[in-house]
Design goal:
The protein is built from 18 helices and 7 strands. With 419 residues, it is α/β, with parallel strands linked by helices. It has 4 domains: 59 residues, no CATH class; 136 residues, Beta Polymerase, domain 2 (2-Layer Sandwich); 101 residues; 89 residues, no CATH class. A 5-stranded mixed beta sheet has the order 5-2-1-7-6. β6 and β7 form a beta hairpin. α8 packs across α11. The radius of gyration is 23 Å and the shape is globular. The chain starts with 6 loop residues before the first helix and ends in a 5-residue tail after the last helix.
């Protein structure tokens, strides 16, 4: 191979190949050990190590992976399979307990994708178990979880407004996986309008972890995954997040009602998020999307430079020593020292409720005021060096700042309303 070797391009080619065809694409037929190592490293950067192994071992012809790399992939795959098996067992217990107290529950994201979209239990890693219930069932849900031995990771009260969160704090029992119980898909104070009750009307039956449960309708599922990857996580989940969406579309292509999807997206007011994500699915993973979907969602189209910035945000998994939040980007862009101070103070003096959730202290206790000092120390430790380098004008901060600035501008574009 020559200088044209591009591990990301090869990985995209593999992901766009149907493993059922039974043969590897020519693009990987003659990779040398160093190139295999680079390709596998890229797969890990994109959180796709287990899937790459699953893909390769399903080929009819033996693949020429160097033994150390094959063993590394195999260990990752097996540990993922074991973890997912335990997650399914835990989910079975959870859903059965909810069923016993008449709490309707729907599987979200990974736990559903593992059962219905990924053909191999070890192919997709999963960090937690996401379940959707109705808001009015939260009290019974908490009681049920506690009865199973789960404890909350931080402060939460049903008496608070809770418009800035969409799920209970992650709950866990000894030796178990984190469980996130959602009552909606996106925080109520975000600039979108998801009707939670309408979601339930469109749910469909599904057997998850051997238990009769529910899941989102396929159109809601796609829209939720788009929001999760592109808006909530600022396109920082890498190819794994995009592949989830591509595989759902490919799996249910005969069932998707694209006009219905557009109508729901418009009711959620997330046309831009959806259009941008689906365009990335189409251009990066060769999944065809009907042209009328884009013209209906965003008649003016997506600017080429904006799409390229989104592609780079998604695929460029570079990590920097400097950490930029959107507020820090705004602070660095401001020329007004008073504006900088205001932004800094807002970062320190967050609401008592947000502080309570961060440090697991009830917001009405006087001692919570001391945690503003704890937060100040945390911000100085985490971002102080970056702020100092910015003030000194060090050019080393520029790559991280530019990436964060692009991310922030993309996020702002997603929430703009059309004329």
């Amino acid at each position: 191979m020559t200088q044209e070797f591009d591990p990301l391009k090869i990985l995209l080619t593999l992901l766009s190949t149907d493993p059922a065809l039974g043969e590897l694409p020519d693009v990987v037929a003659h990779l040398d050990p160093g190139q295999w190592d680079t390709l596998v490293s890229e797969a890990y950067r994109q959180d796709l190590g287990p899937l790459l192994y699953s893909f390769l071992v399903r080929q009819k012809e033996a693949f020429t992976l160097p033994l150390p790399i094959k063993e590394k992939l195999n260990r990752t795959y097996l540990s993922t399979a074991v973890r997912n098996t335990l997650a399914l067992h835990e989910t079975e217990i959870l859903l059965t307990a909810f069923q016993n107290v008449d709490i309707p529950a729907a599987g979200l994201k990974g736990i559903y994708l593992l059962e219905y979209v990924y053909a191999d239990i070890g192919a997709r890693s999963m960090n937690d178990i996401d379940i959707l219930i109705r808001k009015q069932d939260l009290a019974a849900c908490i009681s049920t979880l506690q009865g199973l031995g789960y404890t909350s990771s931080t402060y939460f009260s049903l008496e608070d407004k809770n418009v800035d969160t969409k799920h209970l704090p992650p709950m866990q029992k000894s030796g178990g996986m984190m469980v996130e119980v959602h009552w909606t898909l996106l925080e109520e104070d975000e600039p979108f309008t998801i009707d939670a009750e309408a979601l339930w009307v469109r749910t469909v039956p599904a057997k998850i972890a051997n238990v009769d449960a529910l899941t989102l309708g396929v159109e809601d599922l796609i829209l939720h995954l788009c929001l999760h990857l592109t808006y909530q996580h600022y396109l920082n989940l890498g190819l794994r997040g995009l592949l989830d969406i591509a595989m759902v579309i490919n799996k249910f292509k005969e069932e998707i009602d694209w006009q219905k999807l557009v109508e729901i997206a418009k009711s959620w007011r997330n046309e831009r998020v959806t259009a941008l994500t689906l365009r990335l699915v189409e251009t990066q993973l060769n999944i065809p999307i009907p042209a009328e979907v884009f013209s209906s969602l965003l008649p003016e189209g997506i600017d080429h430079d904006l799409l390229e910035n989104a592609r780079l945000q998604l695929l460029d998994r570079v990590r920097f020593d400097d950490h930029f939040t959107p507020d820090l980007v705004s602070m660095s862009a401001s020329k007004n020292p008073f504006s900088k101070i205001k932004i800094g103070l807002q970062r320190v003096f967050i609401s008592r409720l947000a502080l309570a959730r961060t440090y697991n202290v009830p917001p009405n206790l006087p001692k919570i005021l001391g945690y503003y000092y704890v937060r100040l120390k945390y911000l100085i430790t985490g971002y102080g060096k970056t702020v100092l380098r910015l003030q000194l004008g060090e050019k080393s901060t520029e790559p991280a700042r530019q990436k964060a600035e692009i991310s922030k501008s993309l996020h702002e574009w997603m929430t703009q309303r059309g004329e």
